[in-house]
Design brief:
The protein is an alpha/beta fold. Helix content is about 40%, strand content about 10%. The strands form three sheets. The chain has a seven-stranded mixed beta sheet, with helices on both faces. Strands 9-12-11 form a three-stranded antiparallel beta sheet. Belongs to the class-I pyridoxal-phosphate-dependent aminotransferase family.
Length: about 450
């Protein structure tokens, strides 16, 4: 025993694989921890860094979870059939095309489904810049090469055919095999929604190059304008049937139930879909087995296309719209560059108008800006670099000083207030005659104004 090498005690040999050595704690969890530590010290903090939906769980959904709390048996790997039927019925209505329960797979969140898809699908990956913080690590974990597709420098979301072809050509030149593309609409971090024209461009590109398109639609029910959608309307059915496409979603955002860990995948009713589903179920059987039984029972109620749940979904969307648009206006009033959000609960401002002042403070990257903002001003936000932005405004205009701000923590101070006043707040959202007061939003805007005032006072 004494002759064995201790590979963790300074001999210079890492016990980790090369891929594992590249992995880091998710930036969203890091900023949440920084916010928590600041609060524990009695210091004020405006929590714009963590995108966790915080509305109270709809009462019927909550009751279903409690009723099933004693159920501890494993469910089928593909998920509870009643839940798969509920998801299929709701998505059939939303997409305008029939979806069968057999096309649905349930998992403990959509994140492991994406991990699994990157593992089992052939080829390297194209990803819009910027994109959610976990996509890039998932791709690297699967041992695949990642190629960024540049988006419009103003809204940081729109994708052109030229940008797609440029990235594809570069991947081929680099000896890669691009066969997968992932999109997210409404977007985290931008809060923007793809137009029908933009989606058709993406669809044509992926079909032409035999690329599997994964659509992460975790925010698909939080769209601010009915004319906007996460896919072409009213011909979504045709769009979904052409080429190779996979859709993912879950309970965490619309239903404020991230900790329950329920996600789903929908495959096409084709040979391709059946092949992917078979491989994914085999993967799941050796990895997560099944999502929580009580959570799946509750999700059956949540995803149902019933008048009660339709009302809840609309209330949530209205409140997210008011809060996100309110924060956007506050940022514009601060003199920042920001594209108006169209869905989800994010805004993506650029502090580029104050680049001279920031550089005078020694701040040259979005990461440094986020550190300054929380340590000096008590405002937590995520740096654009966490979403793939390049900290060089010559390469990506405005990319250096972009921050993602989430509005999801601007409703309640704590859990007691969430359930003490949350249902009344949701009900108020249905009554346009009554203005909705959001004191935490007002405080956030006030803090941002104070931070910008500090920048304006810097001598350049």
């Amino acid at each position: 025993m004494g002759s064995q090498i201790d590979r963790s005690s300074g001999d210079g040999i890492s016990p980790l694989t090369a891929v594992a050595q590249q992995l880091h704690l998710s930036p969203t969890l890091q900023i949440n921890e920084a916010s928590r530590l600041r609060a524990e010290k009695g210091q004020s903090v405006v929590r714009l860094g963590f995108g966790e939906a915080t509305f109270p769980i709809q009462k019927d959904v909550l009751a279903a979870h409690r009723e099933a709390s004693k159920a501890t048996s494993y469910l089928p790997v593909a998920g509870l059939m009643s839940l798969r039927q509920s998801i299929a019925a709701f998505q059939s209505h939303r997409l305008g095309t029939p979806v069968k329960a057999e096309q649905v797979v349930v998992a403990p969140g959509s994140k492991p489904l994406l991990f699994a898809l990157f593992d089992i699908l052939e080829g390297d990956v194209l990803l819009p810049r910027p994109s959610w913080v976990s996509y890039e690590p998932q791709v690297l974990h699967a041992g695949k090469k990642l190629f960024w597709v540049e988006t419009d420098p103003v809204d940081r979301h729109t994708i052109t055919a030229a940008a797609l072809e440029k990235t594809y050509s570069q991947a081929i030149t680099d000896g890669a095999h691009p066969r997968i593309m992932l999109i997210n609409s409404p977007s985290n971090p931008t809060g923007r929604v793809f137009s029908e024209e933009n989606l058709e461009i993406i669809n044509t590109f992926c079909t032409t190059h035999n690329i599997t398109l994964i659509s992460d639609e975790i925010y698909s029910d939080i769209v601010f304008d009915a004319s906007l959608t996460s896919a072409p309307s009213p011909c979504y059915g045709d769009w979904f049937s052409v080429g190779h496409k996979i859709m993912t979603g879950g309970m965490s955002k619309t239903y404020s139930a991230g900790g329950w860990r329920v996600g789903f995948m929908i495959v096409q009713d084709t040979e391709f879909g059946a092949t992917v589903q078979k491989a994914l179920l085999a993967y799941a059987s050796e990895c997560w087995s099944a999502a929580s039984t009580p959570a799946q029972e509750a999700a059956t109620v949540a995803f149902a296309p019933t008048p009660v749940m339709d009302l809840y979904r609309s209330q949530v969307a209205k409140l997210h719209k008011q809060c996100a648009m309110g924060l956007c206006k506050g940022l514009v009033d601060c003199g920042l560059d920001v594209a108006e959000p169209q869905g989800a609960f994010y805004v993506y401002p650029s502090f580029q108008p104050y680049a001279a002042q920031l550089k005078a403070l020694g701040i040259t990257t979005s990461l440094q800006l986020s550190h300054w903002l929380i340590s000096e001003c008590g405002v937590a936000a995520l740096p654009g670099s966490a979403f793939g932005e390049i900290d060089d405004d010559k390469q990506v205009p405005g990319g250096t000083f972009r921050l993602r701000m989430a509005t999801s923590y601007l409703y309640f101070h704590d859990e007691a207030e969430r359930y003490g006043t949350g249902y009344d707040l949701l009900a108020t959202a249905s009554n346009k005659a009554h203005p909705i007061s959001l004191p935490l939003l007002d405080e956030a805007i006030k803090s941002l104004h104070a931070a910008v005032d500090r920048l304006k006072a810097v001598k350049v």
